[in-house]
Design a protein that fits this description.
Structural class: mainly alpha
Largest sheet: 2 strands, antiparallel
Length: 115
Amino acid sequence: MNSEAGTAHPDDQRLSAAVRRFQTLDKLPLFAREEQISAAILGPGKFSEWRQIVPLLERRGFPTVDGLHGGRYTPAVKAFYDQQYLSKDGLHPSAPHQPAQIGSYSGKRKANAGT
C-alpha cells in the first residue's frame, strides 16, 4: 500500500496477483515470465532478489528470455537446475555451490599476501 495516498501501487497489485497465482516450475507455461519463474524458484515476493541473481545465472548457462515468446523456456530452466544440482545418477543433490556475494565484485583481483 502507498502510505501517503492509501492506495496500492500498481507494482504491488501486480506482485500480489502473482503471489496468488504461484505455481511450481512444472505447472508454468512453456515460456514463462520472469515473475512466474522467480516465484517458482525463490518463492513469492522475491522478485527483487531474482533480478540481482539472474545475470549471475545467465553467465553459468541459464536460459535467456526468448524475445519472440516473451519468457524463458521453462523446460530449459528446470534442466539447468537439474544439471547444476543433481549428481550424475540424477537422484542425489550434488555438493552445494558457495553463496554468491551479490554486489561485492569490484573488478580487481586481490594480490597474494606472500608474493
